Amino acid sequence: MNPAVLVSSCEPDSADACLLVEELSAALAAITGDSGASSFSVADVRVARSVFAVARDQRGDLLGCAALRPLDGDTNDVGEVKRMYARPGTRGVGAALLAFVESQAGAFAYQELWLETRKVNLRAVAFYQRHGYVQIDNYGKYVGREDAICLGKRL
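Above: the chain sequence. Below: its structure as tokens.
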């Protein structure tokens, strides 16, 4: 983990969290045509086995965010990664956030992590693949969505 990046949990409706989620939504809309905002709610990370995290530099400036929530349905051993975002021009932030989320997932006794991104978001797909995520069958509301790619990692 990058020692210049400090990751910690925070309230998902804090001003810092809201600012970062808004930035992510704008970035996703520019890349994919959809902000992804309809796929996440603050309530998603107010349940057991969930967390919202922010990354900061050593001065306390915001660098990015990520969320982990239980996957809906009958699968208790799968967590879902949501709202992963690193501000442009930052280095090591995504990796630090993902490491934090994966550590939390282990503490929550998840066996796997799943996520969805858009196929057109090549940078995100490559990032997750570099970190051991592999393509899985589309799940939940992403089934049948040709524009979506779902990735998973066994912990």
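The chain has three helices and seven strands.
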